[in-house]
Specification:
The model has no long low-confidence stretch (mean pLDDT about 95). Strands 4-10-9-8-7-5-6 form a 7-stranded mixed sheet, with helices on both faces. The chain has a 4-stranded antiparallel sheet with strand order 11-12-15-14. Strands 1-13 form a two-stranded parallel ribbon. It folds into 2 domains: about 230 residues, Type I PLP-dependent aspartate aminotransferase-like (Major domain) (Aspartate Aminotransferase, domain 2), CATH 3.40.640; about 120 residues, Aspartate Aminotransferase, domain 1, CATH 3.90.1150.10. By secondary structure, the chain is an alpha/beta fold. It contains 16 helices and 15 strands. Bound molecules: pyridoxal-5'-phosphate. Pyridoxal-5'-phosphate binds next to helix 5.
Amino acid sequence: MSKIQDQDPAIYQAIEREKRRQAEGIELIPSENYTSEAVMEACGSILTNKYSEGYPGKRYYGGQENIDTIENIAIERAKKLFGAEHANVQPYSGSPANTAIYFALLQFGDTVMGLKLDHGGHITHGLPISFSGRAYRFVQYEVEKETGRINMEKVRELALANKPKMIVAGFTAYPRDIEWKKFKEIADEVGAITVADISHTAGLIAAGELESPVPYFDVVMTTTHKTLRGPRGAMILCKQKYAQAIDKAVFPGLQGGPHDHIIAGKAIAFEEAMQPAFKEYAKQIKKNANHLAEELKKHGFNLVSGGTDTHLILADLTSKNVPGKQAQNTLDTVGITLNKNTVPFDTRSPMDPSGIRLGTPAVTTRGMKEPEMERIADWIDRVISSINDTAIHAKIKEEVKEMCLKFPVPGIKI
Ligand SMILES: *Cc1c(COP(=O)(O)O)cnc(C)c1O
């Protein structure tokens, strides 16, 4: 980074401080990960200079021979990794990708079913103030109060009553397996298009650690930067039948020139995800999440749905008498990063909800395993149960840093 250092000290120093933060702290935000150095090289490459509106072989600008090669490789790898009929690797990120899917397959005002935001859905699954909620008539299903899980019989009743044109499944804060086949059966019963948003779990699905919706669902969207561990971005997989509509909606429907440097990074990440080491990685993500969940339970934490089948844990802190925001901010001071989160049927506001959301993709990339999960659970418990004791916090911060420096972050040398 010597060029940035010479030219722009303000940005340089902020990046250096961020490097230190990433290296010395524990990253438990379940949507975050550390991408490989190879992926970062692609994202920082000269490919950022190119304009390539259109698709391979059908571009609106000249000079595309290398860009076409890269995008075609990315498409082929995406299809192979997930067994998909068609792949569009151009979406800038998850939210624009979902918007493209809706734009491709719905008319404004159509009825869509998605999981309620405070029950684990994403903003683009029908939050009234989001584009999705403004442009379409979203009917929202919920999780059960007692179990924290989706009751498929209730989903079916809601579908029969509302006759949606599309059903969206796949979530942002739901720790359990998703019954893709049942969603598909319900959608078929009412003639709805099925959309799976596997942004959080794509890496686990690619590795065979969670069931894939690709064989059943019409359209599957994923971000590439969460458990899939690629660059920031997204892709859309679909049945051949929808390929043309999806491609047209991404470009020229919603986007202009694709980000070719990021597409190169996606191609590299897809190849990495096909390696045996990635399968081991995904297995360990789940083991770590399960172990962390069990350890938190031993410390008296109340977990939504009682645990996890995935990389993600949602804890309700009501019984600990510490609000989510204070927990997040205090844990930040010791170098443990996670996010405050609403829990289903939350009585508090989204800006200061009752829960916290944690996940293991990032710590697992660093090579942390079950013994480290035990230490993490113990630190979280000590911080939460001594929420105002800054002396204890300072001590924990040192312990966290000491452990973290034994587990390097790709691309960071301290
Ligand atoms: C992260 C996420 C998205 C959005 O991704 P961005 O890249 O942040 O726009 C969409 N859907 C789900 C379920 C997600 O978890």
